[in-house]
Structure prediction request, 223 residues.
Amino acid sequence: MNTPKKIAHSACSASAIATFCLIFLAGCAALPIPPSQPLVYDLGPGVADARTTPDHDLLAPLVLAEVEAAGPVDGNTAVQYRLAYADARQLRTYQRARWSQPPAQLVQQSLRAALGQRRAVLRPEDAQSTARSDAAAPAVLRVELEEFSHVFASASDSAGLVRLRATLTQPTATGSRLLGQRLFTVQKTAHSANAAGGAHALTDATTQVAQEVAQWLEKMGAD
Prediction:
């Protein structure tokens, strides 16, 4: 093959390779980009499990039923927010943020930790053996979580809002006797107008509402 033909052949080969590369790169660019994983939040390490109250000062055991959730909070792990200055009735979702568990379960953990500092906290199934014994059945605390969201009063002013209803009953031979019921609402200022700020504020609000429930139970005489 003479020199001009060699040059022409080489040029064609290079052109074909370049064309293939461009087609390959174009095809890669057309492929969908894998979605990034959402950030996952929980309520942090919380308080230590070790009880510091002496045994002789412990309050009576208490049954903590499974925390129930109302409306959109039920079983949902999305970090949610409201724009109160636009439409407070619309509950929105941060697309790239999730709770590690549904909020009702997170609140359950926080309540168990707060109540457990001064008393034994039983599950409903654990209390069945107590009910069959000669000892009086322990009181039962039921909690319904009504709100767990990051609420914006303005574009730059927001807070974590937790609202729950606590009901205390005493099991009897003929049913349950109502001992008390109270609605708890706690707001904690968010230090940033994003999911991270909302999650941090909701953590603080959950910790405080759990402490308020524990204090209410002591005043109610659940001791």
Q: What stands out?
A: The chain is about 35% helix and 35% strand. Confidence is low (pLDDT under 50) at residues 6-12. The chain has two domains: 1-34, 39-220.
